[in-house]
Amino acid sequence: MAGRFDPLTRTAVRGGRTSVPAPTGADAVTAAGAGARSREWAPGRGVDLGLTLGPLRRGPGDPTFRTTPDGSVWKTSRTPEGPATLRVALAPRTGTARAEAWGPGAAWMLDGLPALLGDGDDPAAFVPRHRLVHASHRRRPGLRLTRTGLVLESLIPTVLEQKVTSDEAYRAWRRLVCGYGEPAPGPRGGVPHGMYVMPDARTWVLIPSWDWHKAGVDAKRSAAIIRCARVANRLEEAASMELPQAAARLEAVPGIGPWTSAETLQRSNGAADAVTTGDLHLPGIIGFALAGNRDADDAEMLELLAPYAGQRHRAARLILLAGRVPPRRTPKMPKTDIGKL
């Protein structure tokens, strides 16, 4: 099959699969010099990789995130210095984090390893006020709030999750990243199969309307993502802002509301107090868990979480991890048919 050339990703597409041409000239020098870098870091306290990094995974088929049977976590990112792949594992006895990274952004990823594993988080500031929260907190001493320092990386998949089921959002993210991103850098044969780095901001802007449609993304969400990508540099500045200023920066973009900004800043900024409002299920879960009220709204949820001011996101996560949810009494959220919109 002759295949075709995709001008957006500068890759050859054959039989539905994307292959990257061998680098030449200056690119070849960069690729040749982008071998593995490594780092060890001792957290000083127990870290549970699954609990800490789990929120960065967008479904079981996320092409930017993998876990392997040896307990390692693999993650790709588009850093300010370029694409990178990170592999991190914990030494069984000491708990020391051992990381390797590949690609132009490898050094940036390794520099951010402590923040990624919750070094800037302060679990000691959290005081459980409810029996259920106390039990959940005691059972999960390794929970840390990650901070990626990358806003667009969390913002785009969060926009995809607006008003649709998780399965639909995960499918869209997987299709768009694999179709317009680039294969993850790393050792030959060593990167888990199917890993990709998300597209850069310019590529998100240039995705044609029919490919958004094929991914199941309606015009409202795709337009919001394109607007975000056009001001990506301004949005990335929010990673170093305090929570109120960071939320205001994100919500200045049409299509980005409190739900989306909170879900993003929980990951990019490690924001312990970024409680998610406007969620279809969360108020009922927290209301049921803490007060037996499955019909709680945002106002009641915020009232119940008020004793955890400054740590409301952590409290909400511990409540969700406790698994005490009200029995379902309504059908699941129907899947969206954007052809009828």
Automatic annotation (TrEMBL):
Comp. bias intervals (Low complexity): 52-64
- Region Disordered: list its residue ranges: 1-26, 52-80
Return the InterPro entries for the record. Answer: Alkylbase_DNA_Glycosylase/TA, DNA_glycosylase
**Annotated Polar residues bias:** 65-79
Q: Which UniProt keywords apply?
A: DNA damage, DNA repair
Q: Which PANTHER family match?
A: DNA GLYCOSYLASE (PTHR43003:SF6), DNA-3-METHYLADENINE GLYCOSYLASE (PTHR43003)
Q: What is this protein called?
A: DNA-3-methyladenine glycosylase 2 family protein
Q: Which organism is it from?
A: Streptomyces flavotricini
